[in-house]
Write a structure and sequence with these properties.
Layout lengths: L12 H20 L3 H21 L3 H18 L2 H17 L3 H17 L2 H22 L2 H18 L2 H17 L3 H18 L2 H17 L3 H18 L2 H17 L3 H18 L2 H17 L3 H16 L8 H14 L3 H20 L4 H9 L2 H12 L9
Length: 399
């Protein structure tokens, strides 16, 4: 999981909302009194804080509404830097929904606004937006462009002496390394990031790095260490009230269990994850959970349930759900399940879709060495290529 520069409030959400209501009341009082511009600016800043809270709780429509109101206020005030902050947050909301094109559009405009603003705001605003733009490039599969954004951002954070910014960006560099199958390098980035964020007390950032360390150690087949990090990540996400990331942690943990053939343990993670994503209406995550459930049922020789879960995943994708993480793997796991259920034609169709998706992603990577690593160092990608080239979908090992 990559880290957006959307630093938020922590603690009990009822206390957070009470604090925001107090700030809104104070802003309204100032706006009606002798300092209307000051009151308007105060209200805009409070709206940005509200959007952060809603974003972290998975209430993305509410987050967007708060930002749009803040943007309008900043525009009326002629506050270029404030408008840039709002544009960046609109990019955050679009990105978390999987609309990377729209997110990139917002971030590019935000960068231009920050570069128009005064020197004190320029570097802080620019570096935060560069970080988020790098995540969008990562989401689109352009690892070279993402790496460039992150390394540029890291240099600026170091010049500014900002420890938290360095930690966030190192974590994102770890994400890039992991996506290319450089798991040892990814682990090292995450460990550096975790140490920095622990030093400044960034609990949400720590949770993200703990989750990513769990995934990295899982890929390195150090499963005991992986589970330790997953447990710590889940506890911290619960503490800060980030339910979407709690569900993501459960999902990653389940896939690590599946890599060991531990279907019952995977099921125990996937079922609560599905409940979380259903409540949050995170259909893109539901797809990945359904694919995991299909594999878990298959490992347990529960073919009807495996078939049903695979069909649920494929139906969501066919319905046009955007932003599905590891879509090629989703197709591939469904293909394995369908083949085991005797649906050969559907299985080969899913395998073909997995391969096409994988190659489409690879074609976006201009660097031939990075493209090779993406296709052959990432375990599941190598599996897809082998299955496609040999036209063989062997049933996975069972618990």
């Amino acid at each position: 999981m990559a880290r957006f520069e959307a630093l938020g409030l922590e603690g009990r959400r009822d206390e957070q909302r009470a604090e925001l209501e107090t700030l809104f009341a104070l802003a309204d009082t100032a706006a009606k009194g002798a300092e209307p511009k000051s009151g308007a600016g105060w209200r805009a800043r409070t709206l940005i804080a509200q959007s952060t809270l809603e974003w972290m709780l998975g209430n993305y429509a509410a987050a967007e509404a708060a930002v749009l109101e803040a943007q309008a206020i900043y525009r009326d005030l002629g506050d270029i830097a404030g408008e840039a902050v709002a544009l960046r947050r609109l990019g955050d909301v679009a990105a978390i929904r999987g609309d990377y094109s729209q997110a990139g559009h917002y971030y590019q405009i935000a960068l231009a606004r920050f570069r128009q603003s005064g020197p004190a705001d320029e570097r802080q605003g620019e570096v935060r937006t560069l970080n988020n733009l790098g995540i969008v490039y990562w989401g689109m599969g352009d690892y070279g462009a993402a790496y460039k954004c992150f390394t540029e951002a890291l240099a600026i954070w170091r010049d500014l002496g900002d420890v938290q910014g360095q930690g966030i960006t190192l974590g994102n560099l770890g994400q890039i390394a992991g996506e290319l199958g450089h798991y040892e390098q990814a682990r090292d980035y995450y460990l550096q990031a975790l140490a920095l964020l622990q030093a400044v007390g960034d609990r949400h950032g720590q949770a993200i790095d703990l989750l990513n360390l769990g995934a990295a150690y899982g890929y390195l087949e150090d499963y005991t260490t992986a589970m330790t990090y997953y447990a710590q990540a889940r506890d911290l996400f619960r503490a800060v009230g980030d339910r979407q990331s709690e569900g993501a942690t459960l999902t990653y943990c389940a896939y690590t269990y599946l890599a060991q053939g531990a279907a019952q343990q995977a099921m125990a993670c996937l079922e609560p994850a599905l409940a979380i994503f259903t409540e949050l209406q995170q259909r893109q995550w539901q797809v990945r959970v359904h694919a995991g459930l299909a594999m878990a049922h298959l490992y347990l020789s529960q073919l009807p349930q495996a078939w049903q879960a695979a069909q649920a995943a494929l139906a969501e994708v066919a319905a046009g759900v955007q932003g599905v993480e590891s879509l090629a793997e989703v197709y591939f796991r469904c293909a394995q399940v369908l083949a085991a259920c005797g649906a050969s034609d559907e299985a080969w169709d899913a395998l073909d879709r997995a391969h096409k998706r994988l190659m489409t992603q690879a074609d976006r990577i201009p660097d031939p060495d990075l493209r090779h690593d993406f296709l052959h160092r990432v375990h599941v990608h190598a599996e897809i290529i082998q299955a496609y080239e040999t036209h063989s979908l062997k049933p996975p090992p069972r618990e």
